[in-house]
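Before a colleague's protein record goes any further, I have to sign it off. My question to you is simply how this chain folds and whether the tokens agree. I do not need a full report, just your reasoning and any doubts. This is what I was given:
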Amino acid sequence: MVQVRSAYDCDVLVIGGGIVGLSTAYAVTRAAPGTRVTVLEKEQGPARHQTGRNSGVIHSGVYYRPGSLKARYAVRGAAEMVKFCAEYDIPHAVTGKLIVATEKAELPRLHALVQRGRENGIPVRELGPAQIIEAEPEVRGLAAIHVGTTGVCDYGAVARQLGEASGADIRYGADVVRIDRRPDLGAAVRTADGTIVRGRVLVNCAGLHCDETARLAGDDPEMRIVPFRGEYFTLARPELVRGLVYPVPDPAFPFLGVHLTRGIDGSVHVGPNAVPALAREGYGWGVVRPRELAATLSWPGSWRIARRHWRYGAGELRRSVSKAAFTEAVRRLLPAVTPDDLLPAAAGVRAQAVLRDGTLVDDFLIKEGPRTVHVLNAPSPAATASLPIGREVARRALAALAAS
């Protein structure tokens, strides 16, 4: 039986009101004016999780494997994000950043980043110790690179503007509890308050809950979100740091290490570390959700990560429970810092996709099911890359719409 258009509440139904979901709504209505889009967000406003709890950095794309979605979308997205912020008068600044090697063992990795940046089309300048001090008087290192296209912005404001400019029907406090998807009809979604919303095509941008949402829709995502909490401090003496200062990252991990970020408001964020969270939204050690924790522990990939990377994890845990250890990590870059300089700040949780064999999914991951598009891995630099990601997800959703 063929249903008429009026049987649907919308053409594209997006689950998730973070920056990726709202960018998707924005891209759909830009590419196909008149397409009806509804966004369901369980919180009472946009950008309450990954989008609104990061350090606000517009990433250049220097870290990411050439040709990967992260590399292509971050480079393109950084330029587009600056333009978007300027167009809508959203606070932002292109500050550049330093990536600093503090040990000889890090120098080969730093030089590899120079090459990777050039392969990704990013201007990178190499600095010696004297030039590091000239750029950042309190920072010490053996060598550094300066990446000029890095910046900062207010991603919460970006998300709100994307939602407003999309013209979508955005419903907050709409927690999705059931999905009835039928390949010949589309999807009917029920929220916790009993409301049913019908769409011809479903888009899953549920972030920390994207794997669960995929299963609700009847698809096997073949991965599991394993949440990692990033703990931050605010620098009591922000004058110690002029801009953005990063360590040389370990290529074996998708985390960038403890870094220093002067935000758009002038405050300096220090962090994050990366420790396992005991809930999908576990922003502190006291937040434990047994069902979610059991789901993480029952996933074979979680144990394989633990066995493979226990030394790295032990260091992160030590910095989580010991302010002295965290300070020690910061002092590698900023010797003048003291424990009293570090004031607790809001934590974030990274939605990291992990495969059954323990592989940390390194790139953005977008999959499709019948009349459905799932965004299954979109941690940092997804905020930077949100405009290109949104266009790609919108392209797939509109193709599914046209085929329906």
In short: Residues 122 and 266 are 26 Å apart (CA to CA).
